[in-house]
Each structure stands twice: as structure tokens, then as C-alpha cells.
Task: structure prediction
Amino acid sequence: MLSACGQVQTLNFSAKAGEQNFECGQDLMDIGLSSSVVSPRDFRVYIHDLELDGLSLDIPDGPFAKDGVVLLDFANDQGGCTSTPETNTSIEFRNGTATGAFSFKVGVPFELNHQDVAAADAPLNDENMFWNWQAGYKFLRFDAATEGIPDYKFHLGSTGCEADAEGVVTGCANDNIQTFTTDIDFNTNVAVFDLETLFGNSDLEVDEGGVPGCLSAPTDPECPGILTRIDDLVIFE
Amino acid sequence: MSRRFFLSLSLHLLLGLSCGQESSYIYEGLPEGISAPKTPEENPTTIEKVALGQLLFNEPMFSKNASVSCATCHIPERAFSEGRQTSQGVGEAHTKNAPTLINVGYASSMGWANPVIRTLEAHAPVPFFGEEPVEMGSSAERVLQVVEKYASEIKKAYGAEADELSALQKVIFALAAYQRTLIVLDPPLLLTDEELQGQALFHSDALQCASCHIPPFYTDAIKGEANDARGGFHNNGNGDFGLFAFTGRQEDYGFYKTPTLRKVGLSAPYFHDGRLPTLESVIDHYAKGGEQDAPSRDLQDIRTRGFSLEESEKAALIAFLKKL
Result:
């Protein structure tokens, strides 16, 4: 929920599966085509280009934000989770109004996505969010355990990238950056990452090829079911 | 093993001084027309950095359970390859064979089929932090521990610049500097009659080995020579995914980077998945024109469609390869 408090306002995010809150140590029930019991391990998402009525939100740099890129971290290192100890489920910004046309993008902007993680500032300095072999970031990483797949992964990021001779990425066939837009009243609305919808067309118990789960490869049998739902990843409640 | 291979760390003693206290590494004895490996501007090669990199290359503390170092899968005595069909790292099975690191500083890309990672600096996080599969299972904490352990050597390597570098950069830069010194470029000399026969076969129109394994690197996947995703990559009838796994483009199916043949006699088994145990089996693969049932036969390089060799000729070719 966004609330107006002088110049600084706060936008809250949450992660859910239907009515169930994402929480480390708490299984999510009845997920996907096999009604899986899902034990969370990690859930982090980079977002950027947050705008209200076409104006960029002025988000101060900090451990979870830099140059308008924000890391949302719904998992900690407890209850079987393997993320960092800290979580981040809100954004403070210094401009904007309580209502308007709100939009943001899941992902890291191209000009920052292929930088040197070893030299990057927080929150883009986390090696566990850098997709080394793709030379870019994992925009979203959801790791979990189900009965059938103890190391289930859904990692979203740009794929099919090309680089020049020096390794400077010049473009990607699939940028996999997703924009979410809504008319919002920040006094009443919350941005929710809905795992029940995301995995609604997937079987989290079966691996039919590639890495267990989906690493954004269109050729991975588990990917189409998830990637075709990515448009509905975020709802505003 | 060549003189240069053994002496790569001792021939640098002709030095020049950089603006700090560090001493520039001198690549002595490179063949005419061959320059030192290109380095990123921010990571010039120095003697101190190379020495640090060699220590770090052999340091298992990076890995989960402190069980695996770079040298575990890239064994110096095996021309920095592993000798296993595929690697296991800290325990998770890899699908690829650990390739030789000889002349890796000249390579146009890293690994077997990745068109994006083109420098040693960009590659280091893959074995450190990669999850598909886990190779070393390192972490930021592990890297910090190593940096603390080698604080003295790091100070020598970076001087005042150390304060401007992240812990990971201090490690990655030194590892890259060390690997750039793993150079073997001597021309094969003093060949026997059999080896000369093998050399002639290697360069023959019938076999065309040298059209991809181009001297003096004995590969065409060399920086500056192979600048696009397909340059230095070929479908040699192996029947596996290759670049397709990365690009998703059907026309990239089965394309793998041409490995150097330098010290190839030490780097068995062969191919990206280590499927071929001996040089003889490699020659047999090419003689029969690749895997006959490979799903990407239509993409196979025209130069790998087969040839016929007498047993003595095969032996001669192998003898020559072992001289590289």
C-alpha cells in the first residue's frame, strides 16, 4: 500500500499464491497442474522504470536500489530458504501522488544488465542474481522444492544475447522484460506477485528436459507454460 | 612438453615498471607476428598479479567445503584439462569436458559453446557461482576469506589500486592474468619421418584438419579472427546441442568452438562431452564423417564429411598431433 507522508511515500509489494502469503518455512499448497506442495527456497525480483502518470519515481539509492533499479527480496535465509538474511518488500520514493497511472518493469535495463557484476554496486552486485553464462542478471529467481523436483527453479532473464569481440553484449533475442501497468490508488492498492497464476499451467512435479524448472529457454519443455503466464505475474489488489 | 610451457612463469624476468610498484609481465619468445594476449585496459598483466593468480588457481578455499580449486578440473600436468570425461566439481555432474587452458588468453570466447563470454574476467564467475551446474559452489563470503588469506600478495599485486577494487575483482583479475601466461606456440620442430608424414596429412586437402585447427594456435577460435557468434564455431557431426542451447536458433544446432590442438596429447578425453577417449577415436570420428544419426547432419561442416586413412597414416597423424 502506498501512503502519503509528506514528501516520502511508500509502495508495498507482496508475494502470494492465491490467498497464501509467500513465507520462508511455510509451504504453498495446491500449486500448478499437480496441485503441488511447494517449499520456498528463494524469491527475488529486479524491477525498474517505476512511473506514475509518466513521471519516474524518485527512488533513493540504498542497499536495495540503485539508479532506479530495485531488488525486491521476498525470501530470507530461514526456514529452508537460501536467500540473503534481509528482505525488501517496499519502495520509498520522494515524488508522486496517491493516485494515477502506475507502471513498472520486471527486469534490469539493458544498459545495466550486462555490466561486470564484480564491479557493480548494490543491489546489482549479488553474484547469486547474476546469470554468469548468459552475461546478464536473473530478473526473477524463484527456487523451491516439490515432492517430484527437489531443486525446482524458475529464473527469468534475457536470453539469446550476442556480444562483440570484447564481450560487450550488443543485443538479445529475448529481452524478457515485462511491463505492468494499472490505474492505482496507492492508499488501497498493493502490487502482488501471484505465484498461483504464474504456475497455473505448469506441472511442478515433472521435468521433461533441460534444467528442472525453467531458465527462460523457449526450448525447455517447462518454459512455455510459465512464460505464457508472465503477463499475469503481477496483480494489483 | 615444450620449453615455453614449463618456463612460462620464469621467463618474465625481463621487466618494465608500471606507474605503481607492480612490474609488467613480459611475454618473451612469442613467435614473430604474434602479440601478447590482449588484456582489458583495467587489468594489465603484471608479475605480481600472475604470481597471485597462480596461488588462487590452486586455492580450494573458494569452493563449497573447500574441496575444489580451479586446478582440480584444469590440471597443469594434463595441459590444464582434467582427464575425466566430464567434470564433477563439488559434486554436481557437469555435461561438459573441462577444456585445456593452453592459449586461453587468445581465445575468442570461453567454454565450448558460449558466444557471449569472451574474456577470462567475464568467465571466472561461471565456475565460481554458476548454478547450472554448480561447479565450485563459491560465495561472496568464500571470496572474502580468500582475499583475507592472501592480503599480502594482493597488496603486492594491486598496490593502492586495491582499495578501488571489489574483493571479487581482486581475485578475478589475478586469475585472468595467470591464465594469460599459459602459452604454447612453439613450432613443432625436429620431426621424425613419421611425424612429418602426419604433418603433411594434417595439412592435406583430403583431411583439411588445418582449415579449422590453424597454426600456430591450432584453432580458428582466436580473438580478432572470430568475432561473431558463428566464427570459430563449427558443427563437426557431434550430434549435440552446441550454440543452439544458448541462442535457441535452429541453425546453431551442433556448433561448438574449435578447441586448440596444442598439447592435445595430454588433454584426453576429447570433444565437448569427452565422448572420445583417444586421439585414434577422434580421427575415426572424422574419418567416418561424424555421427551418422546426428539430428543436425544438414548443418554439419562440409570439411568433416569423411576420409580414408591407412593404419600407418593414422599412426603418423597421431604422432604429429602429440608434437604440438
In short: Residues 1-6 of chain A have pLDDT under 50 and may be disordered. Chain A has one domain: 3-236. Chain A is about 5% helix and 40% strand. Helices of chain A lie at 110-113, 195-198, 223-227.
